[in-house]
Amino acid sequence: MGETPLSRRTFLSAAAITGLSAPLLSACGTSGPAGAKGGGKTVQAWVLVDEAQNRVQNVAINDFNKGSSGKVKLLPISSDGAVYADKLRVSMGSPNPPDLLFNWGAGSIRNYVQAGGLVDLSSQLNADSSWKNSFLPSVLNAGQIDGKYYGIPMRGMQPVVLFYNKTLFAEQGQKPPATYDDLLKLVDFFKGKKIQPFALGGLDQWPELMWLEYLVERAGGPTVFQNIAAGRPGAWRDPAIATALSQIQDLVRRGAFGTNFNSVNYVNDGAGLLFAKGKAAMHLMGTWEVSNQVERHRKFAETDLGFAPFPSVADGKGDPNAVVGNPTNYFSVSTKSVDKDAAIAFLKKEMAAPAYVDALIKSGDVPAVTGIDAKLSASPQPEFARYVYQLVQKAPSFTLSWDQALMPQFKTPLLANLQKVFAGKQTPQQFVTALESVK
């Protein structure tokens, strides 16, 4: 599958930091005068260095180049998301930025949008319903900035899923939780059996954020975080935030995550190992957990690994079908592109094309493209691929991981203060006050 899905999440976290300091780099963008159009100019597409994914991306590029006067050339920049983001930041400030830029949406491109550096694709999408409707709405909409489309989905989807040990559940006569009350009963049940209810890699901080994201979504719906991301005054004081933080502290007190979760890592397989060895019954994690378990604990992945949606919450305003996580990666178009028309034509012709979709599926991705249910049998994990596709297909909204969606200055305070909440060293109100102070 190229880089493991675990490394994808690492890149997602790192690449949102668009304000990294770095020595000034020579412009690595397109050749030719900025703003020139047509004439068979070469449109350069910046992406991460990933041998398997770059082969997939070249499937689309080679097909487009066969029938277009404008050409697209793939430029893999770095395998490190932070390095890529830093080089992109410098290049976007130069006269010759990349024409097409791989990105994570939201916080990773908001500065470029505000500076007028990216093409608003709303009019093109709205004028071509077949193009717009070729993508799952919740994922396409997750690429919006202030209600306008700046990104076209170009890779697979990575929602956060509630994984459970289905063999252990069967032995204990239990079912995955449909409601939050069910979840609390399972916490108490497994604790009584001296089995840790949930694995949690709190040392890495970002796994804890998934709990806040889902609980806020279920309590208040997607507008709670949309208001935060838009910087609206008082958004952090929405009651759903305090409710979710209180629920988290209740889970900690109940022993949902054991006693040393803030010393357990995820990146080096601490939480995954607890889960695979049957020492933890459940694990809230992104879809990359499947490939990590296949790679590290194949027998467990093949026989014991079950998956379910995050449960509904009584009296919550959020739709129980809504999901959080990493909707996908996107291609955006620079306003300084040497040929914006060719860049947009490439996205329109290729990002949902059958050959490209097939290549993504065979590489292990689940594309955000409509009408591909039958194709998913070609996935390395067909059952799980179909599950992920159907989960997102019926989702009314797909909220991007908060540390990706917010501006870079929020990431460290968000994760550090949430870790304090989990550790019982900070109250919900103190968390809200700390995040309100970030400017």
From TrEMBL:
Pfam families: SBP_bac_1. This is Sugar-binding protein. Residues 1-27 form the signal peptide. It comes from Actinoallomurus iriomotensis. The keyword Cell membrane does not apply. It comes from the Bacteria. Keywords: Signal. The lineage of its organism: Bacteria, Bacillati, Actinomycetota, Actinomycetes, Streptosporangiales. InterPro entries: Bact_solute-bd_prot1, SBP, TAT_signal.
